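Teaching assistant's notes for section 4

Start the section by putting this record on the projector. Ask students to predict, before seeing the second block, whether Dehydratase will look compact or extended. Collect guesses on the board.
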Amino acid sequence: MKVVDFIKQRREEFSRHSFDLKELLSPSLREHWLDFVTKTNKSKIVQLAGSHATASNDDAVVQTSETTSHLAAINKEKQVNTAEIQNTPVQTPAAVAAMKPEAEVLYQELTDTLGQIIHTGDWLLVDQGRINQFADVTEDHQWIHTDPNRAAEESPFKTTVAHGFLTLSLLSVLTDSVDPSKQKFPTAKMTVNMGFNKIRFPYPVKSGNRIRATTSILAVTPVKRGLEIVQELRVEIEGVRRPGCVAESVIQLHF
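Reveal the predicted structure now:
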């Protein structure tokens, strides 16, 4: 009997019972049947794998296309932004703020003197009385400032020395900023102290020393109401090579 006829004969029985077909086959036919099933399954697996790979490749192509389009859009936007930046005019400090005529004249004058000393003050005596008064105001009565006898014995300077902050506080008078008849910037209506960028006390001012200050301009910038000036204030000690104070001061001149 042929295999095909045998299968047809058993078809109805297969539909009534759920047992496996291979249990009904003879050993020789069973081997052929298993070989047939194995080859069929392999063929289906290969087809499914090929379909999946094709679908994955299609998705990858779509994603790559979308990514390329997205990158192209970003590059185009960057090119537009770069062009806008390149076409934007660079504003000079003078264009940032509309200066009044007095401010503009002073701006040009100070710009021409950057790094140069524009003012040298008068000598001022720093005696023990002034040091003691500052100690009373600030409540800083350290013996190195207020006890001449102990300072003569124990201090390496053999005398009392002024507080560093006393030297700093004298900058207003040393730069003639408090004398209306000696104003460095007479065309300005008001001078505003904005503070200091840095302060150093290279050498102590001893009791009885005379000091004076020099002013040099480091930077000038137009601002809303006038000019902002960065200046170096250097306190000289008479007869001493090293300065008593070097400060980088920031002020604003309003016009």
